[in-house]
Amino acid sequence: MKEIKIGLIGWGTVGAGVTRILQKNSALISRRLGARLRLVRVADLNLKRDRGMKLAPGILTRDAARIIEDPEIDIVVELIGGLDPAEGMVISSLRGGKRVVTANKALLAERGKTLFREAGQVRRRIFFEASVGGGIPIIKIIREGLSANRISSILGIINGTTNYILTRMSEEGITLAAAVRGAKKAGYAEKNPALDLEGIDSAHKLALLSSLAFGGWADFSRIYREGINEITDEDIAYTAGLGYTIKLLAVAKQSPSGADLRVHPTLVPRRHLLSAVNGIFNAVYLEGDFSKSQIFQGEGAGQGPTASAVVADLMEAGREILSGNDSTPPFIATDRDLKLAPIGEVVCRHYLRIPVIDRPGVLARIASILGAGGISIDSVIQRQRYKRGLVPVILMTNQAREKALQTALDKISHLEVVRGTPVRIRVED
Ligand code: HSE
Question: How far, in Å, is the centroid of ligand 1 from the Cα of 340?
């Protein structure tokens, strides 16, 4: 049986998952592929850490160049993450005639345009199913399954760590810090968890999904982004009472002013399927002009699901090698940039919590600022009292333009009766 030789760079959580699948399911993979995937070298700076498994002697090295520069190796798996030195490794591997499989969403979102151009020039593909949605084959779904459609919108829960954190906060009432510790222990969070918490990881993944779905490159640095650091148990409780769940949503919509791309905490009505996507699960909801609405759900982080996507890519790259096909078009066959819609033009409903002094006329002053900005109020609640005569005023607005809402909120926060920063969470109906 023919052998396809693989070098793996980065033997961390996902890397160890890949070596485990290649060992445990070796016979099944060979049968399905018609060739053997043979791991000939694994590079990692840490040779000592216990990964719960053994490699044959001589496979493990500290030196990634022994993979990149080995002419015998057909496919390089890059799992070190981050921009540098990963970018150089990918470019050298492609130039050396190798296929590259990666889970590195940061690298592809921030430097993808150059990398995919390079891949096109040397006629070698970059496979990146594991970079978005863990075990959900969402790249294949958009690229192949829905390729006959114009996709008009994507709503995604595409960061498992923050979904796990928000779920534990809302179901168990634990603090953000305790939930972050749980996510790190379970191996879900990024090495730098700020990437998860600040919505950067979701924005990386959104850049890739929207570039693929809308057929142009999304400039990652211009994607509007808010993370979950400011979400409190108080807002989780109030919004639950109003029939909503708070999710960190990645949104991509085609709009008349361009592609509306954003990541922020969002209130999702409890009747919407996305509100029931809990814990480490990811889900992507897509609307196509002929496919209509589709939702795909699965475990979006962690060793097994992500490694499963990496090995599926290894098999796809293997099929390409076996067929001698070097002409599959790269990621998106264009150099076009997506025109992005300014965040100020986005229209949606909003939840506001404004801490105010409990005194007659306060509500009227807030309502008058909102009214002057053309923002109509859907409902108001004022139940609980804080200490020292303060009360939270909870408002749900009707559809309002972001720019108008932001101007009104600035004015409200400067009222002398407002004590503390108002909270605003967008609603996706
Ligand atoms: N930290 C990422 C997440 C890992 O939680 O979704 C998977 O990309």
Answer: 25
Each domain of the chain, given as residue ranges in start order, spans: 3-134+303-323, 138-299, 346-427
C-alpha of residue 76 to centroid of ligand 1, in Å = 22
**Which residues is 293 bridged to in the sheet?**
287
pTM to 2 decimal places: 0.96
Residues with CB under 6 A from ligand 1: 134, 159-161, 188-190, 196, 201, 300-301
- Selecting among 98, 105, 113, 205, the annotated active-site residue is 205
- CATH number for region 346-427: 3.30.70.260
Pairing between strand 244-255 and 258-269? antiparallel
Tell me the per-residue pLDDT of 306-327, one tens digit each, with 9 for 90 and over: 999 999 999 999 999 999 987 6
Its CATH class, for the domain covering 3-134+303-323, is alpha beta
pLDDT of residue 335: 80
CA-CA-CA-CA torsion sign (95, 99, 105, 108): positive
- 185 labelled catalytic: no
In sequence order, what are the beta bridge partners of 260? 253
Nearest CA to ligand 1 atom 7: 301
Architecture of domain 138-299: 2-Layer Sandwich (3.30)
